[in-house]
Amino acid sequence: MFALVTSTLATPLTQPPTAFINNDTHIALLNQNSTWTAGRNAFFDGKTYSDVRHLFGTDLIGFAGLEHVTVGDAKYGVMDVPSDFDSRTNWAGLIAPIRDQQRCGSCWAFSAAEVLTDRNNIKNKKAMPVLSPEDLVSCDKSNMGCQGGRLPAAWNYLEKTGIVTDSCFPYTAGDGTAPACTTSCADGSSWTKTKASSSYAIRGVANMQKEIMTNGPIQVAFKVYKSFMSYKSGVYKKKPYELLPEGGHAVKIVGWGTEKGQDYWLVANSWNTNWGDEGFFKIARGSDECGMETMGPPYAGMVA
Question: Rounded mean pLDDT of the chain?
C-alpha cells in the first residue's frame, strides 16, 4: 500500500505511477473543493497509472505548419452560436455510440473514424454502417497503430485512402497488437472505402462551435492528467498541482453548454460506457483546458 503525500494545505499530490487508479482515498481528496465529481471507473479496475500509459498515444502538435485551417466567417458566414448544443439530439440516431479502444493506443483512430461515421450519417440523413478504426490502426502507415498517431495524418489517410466499414474490418487490436492490413472483408462484403473530400484544422472556440453545428462532431486531442481518469460527472478541470501530463489523448466533441456557471464542451471518449458519464465527459470551454482547443489541433473533414 502506498502512502499518499499531502501538502501543508492538505492538497493531494499527483499519485505515483504504481498507485491504483481506483483508490478511494485519492478519489475523496479529488472531490474536495472541486468543480467536478471523481469516482471509481470500471474501465480502470485493478489498473495502476503505469498500466495504462499506452492509452495516451496521440501526438499533440498544434497549428504550426498546417496548411488547411478554418478562417471564421470566410468559411461559415455570420452565424449565431446557441448557448448549448448536442449533436445527439440535433441529429437523433445518427451519432455513433461510445466504443472501447481497450489496451491499444488507438484513440486517434477511434475518434477520427467516429467523426467520419457521424458526418456520413448526417450527409445521408440516415444511419450508415459504422466505419472501421481498425482500418486506420492497421493500414495507415503514416501513424503508429497501437503506439499512437496524429490527427492531421489520420485525416490525410481518410481523404486520400478512406476506410471500410467496421463489419468489413472489425476491431481486434484491443490486446495492443494490430492485425496486418488486409484488402478483403471479414464479412464477405465488397472492399468499399468511405473517404473524406476535404480535411482541415479548426482554430478558435467559435469556429469549433460553428463547425459542429454545421457539419457534425469534430476530433480533438488534449493532455491527460491523472485526475482525469477518475472523472465521473461535472465540468472537468485539471488540479492546479498537476504539472506533468500522462500523455495525449484524442476524442470527439459532440456539443457544448453551461453547468453551474461554467461553460463546457460535451465530449465522447473511447473508454467504454463504464467510464465517466456513460462514456462522455464535460470539460471547461473557452480557456483551452488541457490544450483541448489548440493541441491536436481540432480537426474534421467533409465526406466525399
Answer: 93
